[in-house]
Every structure is written in structure tokens, then in C-alpha cells.
Write a structure and sequence with these properties.
The complex is a heterodimer of chains A (222) and B (259).
Chain A: E1 2-5, H1 12-21, E2 26-29, H2 32-41, E3 48-50, H3 56-66, H4 68-77, E4 82-85, H5 87-91, E5 93-96, E6 102-103, E7 108-114, E8 123-128, E9 130-131, E10 146-151, E11 153-156, E12 164-170, E13 173-181, E14 184-187, H6 195-215
Parallel strand pairs in A: 1-2, 1-3, 3-4, 4-14, 5-7
Antiparallel strand pairs in A: 5-6, 7-11, 8-10, 9-12, 12-13, 13-14
Chain B: E1 5-13, E2 16-20, E3 27-31, H1 33-43, E4 48-52, H2 57-73, E5 78-81, H3 87-96, E6 100-103, H4 105-109, H5 112-121, E7 126-135, E8 140-145, E9 150-155, H6 156-166, E10 170-175, H7 187-196, E11 201-204, H8 210-218, E12 224-227, H9 229-232, H10 238-247
Parallel strand pairs in B: 1-4, 1-12, 4-5, 5-6, 6-7, 7-10, 10-11, 11-12
Antiparallel strand pairs in B: 1-2, 2-3, 7-8, 8-9
Helix pairs in contact in B: 1-2, 8-10
Classes of the chains: A alpha/beta (222), B alpha/beta (259).
């Protein structure tokens, strides 16, 4: 079972449906109390997904007031698989300049910046992936596979950043599309809306999460 | 590279897909929305647009159920519109599973709806749908509302600029004159709007053969091309259109090689 963090702005049904199609159940977690109960009642809980559309500043406020910030930090401490999708990925980083300057979760080093006006903003539609590093999250995914993006801000990373696993070219900008550090994963695109390619990536995250749960010993494969 | 999108659209009346020829003329039944959505997804549609044309409350509830079913079944983005006039309409469609909500007459009546929806749910899910009627004497385009029945006296270029300023993340631009004719998109209108705004533009109205898609995505500068009857009645198919676009050097999402 995957925990889906509800920060009150994202459309959770598309991620829930996509995980259901991948054969995985979902528990929606809206605050720290939900998480504590879930840890007792559902020992099969494995990975955590932080989805999200909306604004960076509002999302950080929501993470703090709901206590989900502690849930995310706790997950990182115990090396529990954590996947941020779109805004959820951006929140993992240190800073964002979306409508002012905001401090992010700071789990990953980097800053979220706006596209320049040389391209249409938002970056909306299907773009092809360049796989920079082979990784279990991208098992079965090939260079040139298309995924669906909708975003006006992107994570500014060096081309040789060790976080960068896959990228997409948009105008002059190399957009970090998949970032990974240990068990912290982020996709700038929406795997839940990216056809069979996205379905495979979510399936891979489910597999990674189950393996982690199994490695914790005596935990069933929810 | 970002690809050009091909977007099949269906009008849903009381839970069934219908296609009307022209804005005000005959309707023909075109089938079950969920089956059609699945078929288009398999065919390589890049997104789906579903417009609710129901007039009754029951019809609208039936459509809401269709949105839920389609959203649960397909793994590509879904835009839903038709009769959206309040923030609550937007919210309820997003909760039903829409990724984007398009607003037309409701936004003309209350432009702040665009701003409120963009603030609350993000620019990326607010689509401004504009029905544009050509005035051949003046060479201008007028914004039409109520499914093309009522002129507003507003110029399309002014309205689109205003809507984008208020926070619309995408423009769905329909040529009232071309819609239902299958004689091709209005490439001039589309190019004017696409050059004027910073957000993506979906061209709509007039698709009749695969050449029309190439025209509007190159000359017309559209980011996406929407079509309904040409796909419903199998005059051409999404794979055929995409193969042709590809041959003509237009970037499109192609075969995914998941192994």
C-alpha cells in the first residue's frame, strides 16, 4: 500500500486511479494524525507519494500546518521511498522563486526557477525523455519515450548533477525530468497522465517501495 | 522536444456522445463516452476534451459520472467544459477527475472566475474556450457565447489577452465559421492568437482531412489541434494523422516502446 499525501490542492483521483491500474492500493494521508494511525493499522504501508498542482508557497504552508512536513522528513530519515510529482518534486528542493522567494523542504539541493519568455509557458504537453543515468525507477523506459508535462517553473540543476536521472529539452532549457537521491525520487512530469510510459514508472516505484518494505523485515507485500 | 498535440473532443449530452454538424444544426449520436475515450487513448490521442452540452441538472449529473468513469479508465490528460459558471463548478469537475476545466460563456459573464480558479487551482488547469466569429467586412473576429448563438461585441484578440492576463493557462480557440464544415481550420485566426499570447493555443473547428492538421500546426502556429467528427465518423484516424504529421516533419508523440 502506498501513502498519498493530500496537501489540499492536488487532484488525488488521477494518481489513485493510476496506482489502482498498477495493482496497488492507496491510503490518503491529510495530516500527521492520519499517518500515525496508518502506521499502526496498515503495516503494509510502503512508499509515499507527494503529488501536487498549485502554488509552491501555499503548499509549503499546508505541509507545515498539517504536520505532513514531519511525515516527509521522517520518511527521508528511515530511507523510505518518497516520490514527488510535479510540484511535489519541486517542493523537495531548497528554494523556489515562484511568486516571491520560498524555502522548500531542502531534502535535495537546488532552486526552482521560471522559464524565460522565449518559450510558451506553461511547458504543457508531451516531451521526450533523455535518460542520463540508468535507474530501477526507469526500468523499461527508453530514450525518446514521451511523458506529459504541465509546469511554469523548473529545477535549475547542473547538467552533471548527480541527482539528474532523466531530462527533457524545452527551447534552450534542459528540464530535469527525473531526479533521484537515495530513496528520494521526483518526476517533473505527471506519470499518472503519461500513458503506458508513466504507468510503467509508477509500477517501478511500487516495486521499489515493496522491496523496501520487505527489507524492513516481516512486512507483508501490501 | 515538445510535441504538437492531437486532441479528440466529444460533446456529451445526458451521458451520451453526440456530434452536431455546425453549431446550431443536427445532432448525431456518436456512442458511449467511456468506450470512445479508451479507443482514442489506444489510438494515441494526446489528451481528451469532453464538453457537456446537457441543458438539465440530471443531464449534468450524468455527465459528471461520465467524467469520473473516463478519468478512472484513461491515463492521458482530460479537459472538461460546458456550462462552467462558478468556482464550485470548476472544483467539482476537478474532483470528478478532470485535469483541466474549460470555461467559455461563464468566463465572459464573470471574468474574475478565471482569476479565482487560477489562484485556487493553478493556471495550468484553467482553459479559456473562445468561439470566434469572423466579420468579413471588418476582417475582425467577435467573441460568441451560448454555443455561438449570442454575439458579445467583444474582439477575440482583446478577450484572449485579458483572459490570459487573468490567469488562463491555455486557449481553446474555435472558429465559429469553420466548425462542422470539415473544410479546414481558420489558420489566420489561429496564428494571430498563437502569436499574441504566451500560453499554448489549441485550434478547433474545421478539421476534415489530415492535411488540415499540418496546416494549423505549422502555418497556424497552434500548439495542439482539436477535432471531433472527423475522428468519430472515422474519416481519418489519429494514427493516420500522426503518421502524416511525422512525415511532414511536425513533431508528434509517437510509438512508446515500453518493454
Amino acid at each position: 500500500m502506498i501513502a498519498l499525501l493530500d496537501i489540499g490542492i492536488g487532484n488525488l483521483s488521477s494518481v489513485t486511479s493510476a496506482l489502482a491500474r498498477a495493482g496497488e492500493t492507496v491510503a490518503v494521508v491529510a495530516d500527521e494524525g492520519d499517518w500515525s494511525r496508518l502506521m499502526v493499522e496498515e503495516p503494509s504501508i510502503s512508499g509515499i507519494i507527494l503529488p501536487g498542482v498549485g502554488a509552491f508557497g501555499d503548499a509549503m504552508i499546508q505541509l507545515k500546518t498539517s504536520g505532513l512536513l514531519n511525515v516527509v522528513r521522517g520518511a527521508v530519515t528511515e530511507n523510505r521511498p518518497l516520490l514527488g510529482i510535479c510540484l511535489g518534486m519541486q517542493l523537495l528542493f531548497a528554494y523556489s522563486e515562484e511568486h516571491g522567494n520560498h524555502v522548500g523542504l531542502g531534502i535535495l539541493p537546488g532552486k526552482v526557477v521560471r522559464f524565460t519568455n522565449q518559450v510558451k509557458v506553461p511547458h504543457m504537453g508531451w516531451n521526450d525523455l533523455t535518460v542520463v543515468l540508468s535507474h530501477p525507477l526507469l526500468e523499461g523506459i527508453h530514450k525518446g519515450d514521451f511523458v506529459y508535462f504541465v509546469h511554469s517553473f523548473y529545477v535549475q540543476l547542473a547538467v552533471n548533477s548527480p541527482l539528474l536521472v532523466a531530462a527533457a529539452q524545452y527551447g534552450d532549457t534542459l528540464v530535469p525530468a527525473v531526479v533521484v537521491q537515495n530513496q528520494v525520487y521526483g518526476t517533473q512530469f505527471h506519470p499518472e497522465k503519461s500513458g503506458e510510459v508513466g504507468a510503467r514508472i509508477l509500477q517501478n516505484f511500487v516495486t521499489i517501495s515493496r522491496q523496501w518494505a520487505a527489507s524492513q523485515g516481516g512486512v507483508s507485500h501490501g | 522536444m515538445l510535441t504538437k498535440r492531437i486532441i479528440p473532443c466529444f460533446d456529451v449530452l445526458d451521458g451520451r456522445v453526440v456530434k452536431h454538424v455546425g453549431f446550431l444544426q443536427n445532432r448525431r449520436d456518436a456512442g458511449d463516452p467511456v468506450a470512445l475515450a479508451q479507443q482514442y487513448t489506444r489510438d494515441g490521442a494526446d489528451e481528451l476534451v469532453l464538453l457537456d452540452i446537457s441543458a438539465s441538472e440530471q443531464g449534468r449529473l450524468a455527465t459528471r459520472r461520465v467524467v469520473e468513469e473516463v478519468a478512472a479508465q484513461v491515463n492521458i490528460p482530460l479537459t472538461v467544459g460546458g456550462g462552467v459558471s462558478t468556482l464550485e463548478d470548476v472544483r467539482s469537475l476537478l474532483l470528478a477527475g478532470a485535469d483541466k476545466v474549460s470555461m467559455n460563456t461563464g468566463a465572459v459573464r464573470d471574468p474574475q472566475l478565471i482569476h479565482q480558479a487560477a489562484q485556487r487551482f493553478g493556471d495550468q488547469c484553467v482553459v479559456i474556450a473562445v468561439d470566434a466569429k469572423h466579420n468579413p467586412t471588418m476582417g475582425t473576429y467577435e467573441v460568441m457565447v451560448n454555443g455561438g448563438k449570442v454575439g458579445t461585441g467583444m474582439d477575440v484578440m482583446d478577450w484572449v489577452a485579458k483572459a490570459v492576463n487573468l490567469g488562463a493557462g491555455e486557449v481553446l480557440l474555435t472558429s465559429f465559421n469553420q466548425d462542422g464544415t470539415r473544410e479546414g481550420y481558420d489558420c489566420i485566426l489561429t496564428q494571430w492568437v498563437a502569436n499574441a499570447v504566451s500560453v499554448p493555443v489549441i485550434a478547433s473547428g474545421g478539421a476534415g482531412k489530415k492535411e488540415h492538421f499540418v496546416q494549423v500546426l505549422t502555418e497556424g502556429k497552434a500548439d495542439a489541434a482539436l477535432a471531433a467528427s472527423v475522428f468519430h465518423f472515422a474519416e481519418t484516424s489519429i494514427p493516420q494523422v500522426k503518421a502524416y504529421l511525422r512525415k511532414r516533419g511536425v513533431p508528434v508523440r509517437w510509438q512508446n516502446q515500453v518493454s
